[in-house]
Specification:
Rossmann fold; 16 helices; about 425 residues; globular; alpha/beta; 3 domains; seven-stranded parallel beta sheet
């Protein structure tokens, strides 16, 4: 794609800059004119300095308001009419819906990115029916609908919003391994530091985190809780109280979170829903254990008990128990968890992202690079791999372990022994 006008619709500058910066830079470097439509924020200037043309567009991110939502859609129609882009790329719910509708009816090619389902899909009610209807309207003519996890894609398929043939699943927005490098684990200390990075809002599980932190501090007073991110909900008084009582340290929004990740012993994200939490990828890539929710968009980054722990949504007691379990681990066990995180993130997110993108672009070099990544990484060490080792199969690299995991998943678990070379030979000799 050369010398095209590309319009990106989003609802927040932070997410666009932090997670889509590499894509935007690539589009600009290719000679394209990139326009961004979103509310004004502290990182808009950074995007403009990259070469983006900024169009200020207020977006009410919470709930459904017919008046403001209709106004937003008309705003998108107006922007499309003025810029006449060759391609529209949309992120997050309202830009996806109202930007998608505008692009569809303007007959401009567009791609929709489902970065999460939001609360609308949590309950069977009229709001969900309305959102499903709007998504059907907006996605009907999209060139591609990108998802960050298979669970979200399946919800769209089951609700007859889209057909699978027009979808593409990418594990998050990707991660720059040159920026988020493996870093040494903190020195052994009783002052265990837990870290939360994200918007301070109910849906990120902060209510549960704050309650758990208060209870943990009663048992382990030397443990610290660092909270990094802007306040979305009205938590000002609550935050001040928790800071004043020594329960948490609050640092607000930070453009660079790597210094906080380096200092922490474990990252916590008890979200209610996610597309694919990039903070989990960043912390895992830097070699930190992870405690997060047992939901699509989070559990893809964690093997429970290996590189962290999974907790049920809104389960304060479960969150406390997993934090205490982590605290009681030996220093070497904590360190090994962190090492496994880095390996798992590369295997389960970076490699699939690179391979899928290579297939999408018909670029064999990217696919080959994904394969080389697996060959260079250590093999996973879990009960599946150990069972294959015990059976006499050597496992030298992550490429071997991934192949054997898939073999187990596609043949052993489905009892398709006769279709498997190993199974056939075994049964023939019996």
């Amino acid at each position: 794609m050369k010398n095209k006008k590309i319009l990106i619709l989003a609802n927040l500058d932070v997410g666009l800059y932090k997670f889509r910066k590499a894509l935007i830079k690539k589009l600009i470097d290719q000679g394209n004119e990139v326009y961004i439509s979103l509310p004004k924020g502290m990182l808009v200037q950074n995007l403009k300095e990259m070469g983006c043309h900024f169009i200020e567009t207020p977006v009410d991110r919470r709930g459904i308001n017919p008046a403001t939502d209709f106004k937003l859609m008309m705003r998108y129609f107006n922007i499309l009419g003025k810029i006449k882009p060759d391609l529209v790329i949309t992120y997050t719910i309202k830009p996806n819906i109202y930007g998608g509708i505008a692009a569809r009816f303007k007959r401009i090619p567009y791609a929709v990115n489902i970065t999460g389902l939001g609360t609308a899909f949590q309950n069977e009610n009229m709001i969900k029916k309305l959102v499903v209807f709007l998504y059907k309207l907006s996605c009907k003519k999209a060139k591609t609908i990108f998802f960050e996890n298979k669970g979200n894609k399946q919800v769209f398929i089951e609700n007859n919003i889209i057909k699978e043939s027009r979808t593409c699943t990418l594990p998050g927005a990707g991660i720059d391994l040159d920026e988020y490098k493996m870093t040494p684990y903190p020195e052994e200390s009783r002052n265990i530091r837990f870290l939360f990075i994200g918007r301070v809002m109910k849906e990120k599980g902060v209510e549960e985190l704050f309650k758990a932190a208060k209870n943990i501090k009663k048992i382990y007073p030397e443990v610290s809780f660092d909270i990094v991110g802007p306040m979305e909900d009205d938590y000002k008084d609550r935050i001040h109280s928790l800071v004043r009582n020594g329960i948490i340290y609050y640092y607000g929004f930070q453009e660079d979170v790597k210094p906080f990740i380096k200092k922490c012993d474990c990252f916590i994200l008890p979200s209610y829903h996610e597309g694919m939490a990039n903070t989990l990828l960043e912390c895992g890539a830097m070699g930190r254990p992870l405690i997060t929710s047992r939901i699509h968009g989070c559990m893809e980054a964690v093997r429970d008990g290996e590189n962290g722990y999974l907790v049920d949504v809104k389960d304060v007691k479960g969150l406390e128990e997993k934090m205490m379990e982590f605290i009681e681990l030996s220093y070497e066990e904590k360190k090994q968890m962190g090492e496994k995180s880095q390996n798992l993130i590369v295997i389960n997110t970076v490699v699939p992202f690179l391979y899928t993108y290579g297939l999408h672009r018909s670029d064999d070099r990217m696919c080959d690079r994904a394969g080389r990544f697996l060959e260079e990484l250590k093999a996973e060490d879990n009960h599946i791999i150990r069972s294959w080792r015990d059976a006499g199969l050597p496992v030298g690299s992550a490429a071997d372990s991934q192949a054997l995991i898939q073999l187990r998943k596609e043949y052993c678990d489905k009892r398709k022994c006769l279709f498997c070379r190993f199974g056939y030979e075994y049964l023939r000799k019996k």
